[in-house]
Design brief:
The complex is a heterodimer of chains A (547) and B (147). Chain A is an all-alpha fold and 547 residues long. Chain A has helices spanning 6-17, 33-41, 57-81, 98-110, 138-142, 199-205, 219-227, 232-239, 252-255, 276-298, 308-313, 323-332, 409-413, 430-433, 466-475, 515-525; strands at 86-88, 93-95, 173-175, 180-182, 371-372, 437-438. Chain A starts with 5 loop residues before the first helix and ends in a 22-residue tail after the last helix. In chain A, helix 1 (6-17) runs parallel beside helix 3 (57-81), helix 3 packs antiparallel against helix 4 and helix 7 packs across helix 10 (276-298). By secondary structure, chain B is mainly β. Chain B has helices at residues 4-16, 20-24, and strands at 39-49, 52-59, 67-75, 83-90, 98-105, 112-120, 134-137. Chain B has a four-stranded antiparallel beta sheet, with no helix packed on it. The N and C termini of chain B lie far apart (48 Å). Classes of the chains: A mainly alpha (547), B mainly beta (147). Chain A binds chain B through residues 177-180, 337, 340-341, 347-350, 368, 370, 372, 477-478, 480-482, 501, 503-507, 509-510, and chain B through 29, 31-32, 46-47, 49-52, 54, 65-67, 70, 87-95, 100-103, 105, 122-124.
Chain lengths: 547, 147
């Protein structure tokens, strides 16, 4: 690809950095001038083969960035319009508006693109509401699946997961009796929540210092940027004035505009030289940053329980499932065995049909919080395979190149590929978890701004529609394996071999579903989209065109 | 030549004479203690390629832990089933039967293999499902089509 996108990139970065040229599109006064000027004078990292990256990548980055900024500004306005809470009671509690203000704080943090090394990537850049808080660019979802980080074009190795219902996953524990891991966040469960007791909050702490995502070299940089954010008073109202009472060294700005992984850091992950007390304070503030985000993700803005299926479970007479949706649900909990992992609240009832009134759970989460290896093929379009040459900072994301095999939970348990295992007793379990990925909730799998907007499914986004997903579960083992797929047969009558053979789940793979039954399951999955009983917050923020 | 029944008994003794749990001196927790597990119908060869096969069966090992393991012990000699394939299968809640599918790879083309099936709950320790030695044959490798 080389310099093909370079001219477009200049325009893109100019837009991202705003009129003041300080890399701060939110106008909150952060200075990112060093990185902005650097980005304007040097070409992007581009080791990718021609045609791999979608041609509209930069215009779509601009589009999403503008959407992010708009939601950020609206959240700022909501904060300003919210009555100040009353600190009362013991323990002292923010009465009346305390809960909403914590959620607004989390929302501001998620939509603040100054929380990235180059001031151009907010958390929500990869997680927009209209896409179920997952990838917001149809052409990216249809191709490379992973999203470019703050340093263009470093890419992560997996599909952005959805925020929706992620706070409901418990902290990661190994259940000895079940011989299985329950909880955690991320595809590989590496966000355990071992310290702050929330796997979801801990999840929010990873991307900001991920070399291929927000790219900060030090968690203290997040605190430094927060200290300059326009919503700092809100943070201090909730978490206390001590949060930013930190003596940042004079070189903090320079350090925090140098991407993580740069050779200049020599592997040091705490290059901001803080005193011991200030380092502790910054770590506490970083935890509070994460807890605020989790509060927002658990709120009805994100995890709404407002789907048609929720209304159906609540007995809403206007939310009766259609014949196909009902048939799909019965298949989901019967012949297709979907609910052996995606728990729908009827697991204790094995009868062939079930009445609306006899469902055990009225708010099923459609996951069992475990992990599994579905035997998914590689996604050869994953840009991570090509990141085996150093960028201008001397950083190489994936030295193994195409030889990289995504072992999922097994990688985390071995403390490889970005995961850090916090329990030595778990390490020997790694071979039993090779290839396993989190059982994601089936809620909101069809949330999209328009029917033709492509969403990608599974950890590597190999599957591009719910029909493909159900067809894969149905027929993974049904066709003659070992026969090379062609463009005409792949995903129809042929599936490439699994990326990881070990621990391949055989519950599925040859379900014997007809084409009609596959479609009925898809129809049922579409009833799990929030926004049926009331509008889904920020759903109508998509400004792109549908393909 | 020994009769098929004798071969079956020899294989079962070879497999079940000393259970792994007994050898390890472990006691299975009460909630996992198996009842007598029996096949429901016959195991079948679901599919086979020159180097792999899927064996499917249903037995009465339903319930208990969420993940079960289907186990196929197989080999070229019915008296010496020296290889084992295991596959994880998720249990249906509140179901007394369990359908297993086990994927076996690394097979040779156009070769007959003998096998027995067994099951385990999440601890991976075989429940001791009893049944005769069966067999399947992999298809020959097809010559590649010229381009």
């Amino acid at each position: 690809m080389g310099w093909r996108l370079w001219a477009v990139l200049l325009v893109s970065l100019a837009g991202a950095c705003g009129s003041d040229g300080d890399g701060n599109g939110n106008g909150n006064g952060n200075g990112n001038g060093d990185s902005a000027s650097l980005a304007h004078t040097l070409p992007p990292y581009d080791p990718y083969p021609p045609g791999l990256l979608p041609p509209d990548l930069n215009t779509e980055i601009d589009r999403v960035t503008a959407e992010v900024d708009r939601i950020f500004r609206e959240a700022l306005a909501e904060w300003k319009a919210t009555p100040r809470p009353i600190l009362t009671g013991n323990p002292p509690t923010l009465q009346n508006t305390g809960k909403r203000l914590v959620e607004i704080l989390g929302k501001l943090e998620l939509f603040d693109r100054t929380i990235s090394v180059n001031g151009n990537v907010a958390c929500s850049f990869c997680h927009m509401p209209y896409a179920g808080f997952s990838g917001p660019i149809s052409s990216v979802n249809a191709t490379v699946v992973a999203y470019p980080g703050s340093v263009h074009y470093r890419f992560g190795k997996r599909k952005p997961q959805s925020y929706t219902y992620s706070p409901f996953y418990p902290k990661l524990e190994f259940n000895q009796t079940q011989q299985d891991f329950y909880g955690g966040n991320f595809w590989d469960l590496r966000s355990t929540g071992y310290e702050i007791q929330s796997s979801d909050a801990e999840q929010a702490q990873h991307p900001v210092v991920d070399t291929q995502e927000h790219g900060f070299p030090d968690t203290a940089c997040v605190v430094f940027r927060l200290s300059q954010a326009p919503y700092r008073p809100l943070f201090e109202l909730i978490w206390g004035k001590q949060a930013f009472d930190i003596d940042f060294p004079s070189d903090t700005r320079r350090i925090c505009t140098t991407p993580g992984g740069a050779a200049v850091f020599h592997g040091n992950t705490m290059p901001v030289a803080l005193s011991r007390a200030d380092r502790g304070r910054a770590s506490a503030t970083f935890d509070q940053f994460a807890l605020s985000i989790s509060a927002y993700e658990a709120s009805p803005d994100v995890s709404a329980f407002s789907s048609k299926f929720d209304a159906f479970l609540a007995g809403d007479p206007s939310a009766q499932l259609t014949e196909d949706e009902m048939a799909g649900w019965q298949l989901f909990r019967g012949k297709a065995v979907c609910n052996t992992c995606h728990l729908d609240g009827t697991e204790s009832n094995s009868t062939a049909s079930i009445a609306q009134t006899s469902i055990a759970s009225k708010a099923p989460l459609f996951t069992d919080f475990t992990s599994t290896n579905l035997g998914l093929p590689r996604n050869p379009e994953n840009p991570f395979y090509f990141e085996n040459v150093p960028d201008r900072y001397g950083f190489t994301a994936n030295p193994a190149g195409r030889a990289f095999t995504d072992l999922g939970v097994g990688l985390f348990l071995r403390s490889e590929a970005g995961g850090v295992n916090v329990e030595a007793d778990w390490t020997p379990l790694a071979p039993k978890f090779d290839g396993k990925m989190q059982v994601a909730t089936a809620r909101n799998v069809d949330m999209r701004p328009c029917p033709t907007f492509v969403r990608a499914y599974m950890h590597n986004g190999y599957l591009k529609s719910l029909k493909e997903v159900v067809h894969f579960y149905n027929t993974r083992d049904a066709f003659l394996p070992g026969v090379p797929c062609t463009r005409d047969t792949e995903k129809k009558t042929c599936w490439p071999p699994p990326e990881v053979d070990a621990n391949k789940d055989m519950t599925i793979g040859n379900l014997g579903l007809t084409d009609k039954e596959e479609n009925q399951i898809v129809a049922f999955l579409r009833t799990l989209t929030d926004g049926y009983t009331r509008p889904y917050t920020d759903f109508k923020t998509f400004t792109g065109t549908c393909p | 030549m020994r009769s098929p029944a004798a071969l079956t008994i020899a294989a079962l003794v070879a497999i079940h004479g000393v259970t792994p749990r007994a050898a390890a001196g472990l006691a299975r927790p009460a909630e996992l203690r198996p009842r007598q597990v029996q096949l429901v119908g016959r195991p079948v060869l679901e599919s086979a390629t020159p180097d792999s096969a899927v064996i499917r069966w249903t037995d009465t090992s339903g319930g208990g832990t969420h993940t079960h393991h289907g186990i196929v012990r197989y080999g070229l000699d019915p008296r010496h089933l020296d290889r084992t394939a295991r596959s994880p299968n998720r249990a249906r809640m509140n179901a007394t039967t369990m359908t297993y599918r086990v994927w076996i790879d690394g097979l040779a083309p156009n070769t007959t293999y003998y096998y027995t099936v067994d099951a385990a709950q999440a601890d991976g320790i075989a429940l001791g499902l009893r049944g005769p030695v069966r067999k399947f044959t992999t298809p020959p490798r097809r010559p590649r089509r010229p381009h």
